[in-house]
Amino acid sequence: MFTIDAHQHFWKYHASTHGWIDDAMAVIRKDFLPAHLEPVLLQHYIDGCIAVQADQTNDETNFLLQLTAENSFIKGIVGWVDLRAADINEQLSYYKQFNTVKGFRHVLQGEDPAFMLQPGFINGIAALQQYQFTYDVLVFPTHLKAVLELIKKFPDQLFVIDHIAKPYIKAGLIADWKKDLELLASFQNVYCKISGMVTEADYQHWKQADFTPYLDVVVNAFGSKRIMFGSDWPVCLVAASYEKMLGIVKDYFASFSLTEQQDFFGNNVTTFYQL
Fold first, then answer.
1. Quick one: DSSP state of residue 233?
2. At 63, is the pLDDT very low, low, confident or very high (cuts 50, 70, 90)?
3. Fewer CB within 10 Å, N- or C-terminus of the chain?
4. What is the strand order of the sheet 101-106 is part of?
5. Residue 256 pLDDT greater than 90, yes or no
């Protein structure tokens, strides 16, 4: 079975660049590079990964490109570009020459929901579609109504929801998130990464059962063909080892058919990012 981790990060830690890593996440205040991840992937029989931006600069995209050129197990990158830039088409044309650049992401969770509906951002998403780049949607549940308005404008653009839209697992809240996520899932061009859950739970005291109702919602909404596994390494290390993060989804999908498991752990991400 060909397996791909659809969501992880690399960085050379700098306190100013990575200010979002607060005291509660101090364990990840250090460098995380391909040499640290590759043995972990090998240990768990994972064939490759998608490296996703963690900093909002063009330097970040170029940093990921360099790592990809040096490490064949990085199968693709989701970079950053200022989608509101006047020269967005020129920038995307430049990145199109690199077949490992699969898509882009902006940290929308740090913006007001209205940010993604401003004309400049809309223009950038339209440009992504023109160059056949994907878009990773990183948001909190409070952004989902705006996300719905965004995707309605682009029925032919591939979107993927990162980290199941970060539901409030620690608080046990599910109803509003469920309703909004199900609306998004009704659009066939929208996929969902089952990733990042442990950092939305109680870091120290989560248990497998905490995630089951949220996983049920995602799988029932998106089906087996539009979901993919992502570890969110190294961010996941705040609350769980790679092995434990992988174990959550392996246990959940153990009763699914082999085909469904193959789709979740590899085929769907290969299709989505055109690996």
1. B
2. very high
3. N
4. 4-8, 48-52, 74-79, 101-106, 134-137, 159-161, 190-194, 227-229
5. yes
Please report, as a single letter, which amino acid is at residue 221. Answer: A
- CA Rg value for the chain: 17
- Say if residues 269 and 3 touch (Cβ distance below 8 Å): no
Q: What are phi and psi of 101, to 5 degrees?
A: -80, 110
| Under 8 Å between Cβ of 101 and 51 | no
Q: How do residues 129-161 score in pLDDT, each as one tens digit?
A: 999 999 999 999 999 999 999 999 999 999 999
Distance between CA 129 and CA 144 in Å, rounded? 21
pLDDT score of 217 = 98
The string of DSSP letters for 104-149 reads EEE-GGGS-GGGGGSHHHHHHHHHHHHTT-EEEE---GGGHHHHHH
Q: Using 50, 70 and 90 to split pLDDT, how confident is the model at 27?
A: confident
74-100 in b/e form (b: 16+ CB < 10 A) is bbbbbbbbbbebeebeebbeebeebeb
| Plot region of 164 (φ>0 → left; ψ -120 to 50 → alpha; else → beta) | left
The CATH class for the domain spanning 4-273 reads alpha beta
Dihedral in degrees, nearest 10, Cα atoms 57, 63, 65, 71: -150
Collect all residues with Cβ–Cβ distance below 8 Å to 6 and sequence separation of at least 6.
49, 50, 193, 195, 228, 229, 230, 269, 272, 273
For residue 1, give the nearest of 252, 219, 253 by alpha carbon: 253
What single letter denotes the amino acid at residue 97? Q
Q: Which of 260, 229, 262, 235 is nearest to 247 (CA)?
A: 229
| Cα separation, 70 vs 37, whole angstroms | 14
